[in-house]
Amino acid sequence: MSSVVDVTVPVGQAEGTESVVGSWFKAVGDDVAENEPLLEISTDKVNMEVASPGSGRLSEILKQEGEAIEPGDVLGRIKMGGTSSSASGDLSPAVRRLLKEHNLDAAAISGTGKGGRITHQDVLDFVASRATPGATKPPARPAGAAGSGMPGRMVPHSQMRRSIAQHMVHSVNTAPHVTSVFDSDLSAVIAHRDASKAEFESRGAKLTFTAYFVRAATEALKAVPEANSRWHDDALEIFDDINIGIATALVSGGLIVPVIMKAQERDLFGIAERLQDITVRAREGRLDPKDVQNGTFTISNHGVSGSLVAVPIIINQPQSAILGIGKVERRAVAADADPEAIAVKPMCYVSLTIDHRVLDGYQANQFLTSFVAALRNP
Fold this sequence. Notes:
The protein is an alpha+beta fold. The chain has helices at 93-101, 120-130, 159-174, 187-202, 209-223, 268-283, 361-376; strands spanning 4-8, 20-24, 31-32, 37-42, 47-51, 56-61, 74-80, 177-185, 229-231, 236-238, 244-246, 248-249, 255-256, 259-260, 297-300, 321-325, 329-334, 342-355. Residues 133-141 have low confidence and may be disordered.
């Protein structure tokens, strides 16, 4: 007699302002193998897979896509029994999402990844190869339809976008935002990076500017520990560990903030190594929930996409501050040796947006002074 096993939301795995069923990878009646990904749960922080607790057949789906869930909720049921293995177990969440979005069969696509695995780019290339000049576009909304009433089309929000929106509105409504902006000379950072990047790469870590920003932010947080804190109505909780989140844009849209834990205990190589690991896994959709938890401070390196300055950058609640890094560009500035002379240097604007309940402008400027000084002496 076959037994039935519940598929549940893992307890302690649903961190975020709201958790919902993102997408099911299987339909009722499909064979499933033990530990094969069955569905994806979405929050504003991370998408995480729920694996099958055994081999058999998916007999029920109790929570539909977009439905809110809590830890311990029963999502579906597996009727246990023999089954053949499924090739979808070799696909990443990002690949499965693309296949579903374009209604594609994985068997039709040749994989270029390790062992013939289908990559995100393989799917995009396949979709592009099928495109034709006469391909139909999404129909425009007729006048009078829901929305503004003007011609256009409605693009449904992803769960991540809805959760980010809620999180941003909550932050603005919770904390009075104030921003200070400084200018930073990266000449010393560039010289140090040019001299060190080959050695770092030989040890397995790519040395990026962001690694220097994390290291300098760590020193600034030591100088102004109130920026590494959480506001409570009766007290300010100042953390011993400096856990720095790195805002990372995703190829599929949205933003995620993986965390470098205990940055105060890491040297520049340790920071670069961890940074490379979490950013690669973030963009491939392979982050674990623990990778985005317990951040105490956040860096938004918006300059990588060309922005010079962005203020205010919304604070990642319940943190007390967020650091913004603008685009590095060569600009004419006063020379160090002779303030009457002009020199061309690699410069960038750096900003600190603070929760004004926690910090004052003086402390924000003290933080940025320390941060800029650390970049001058990498």
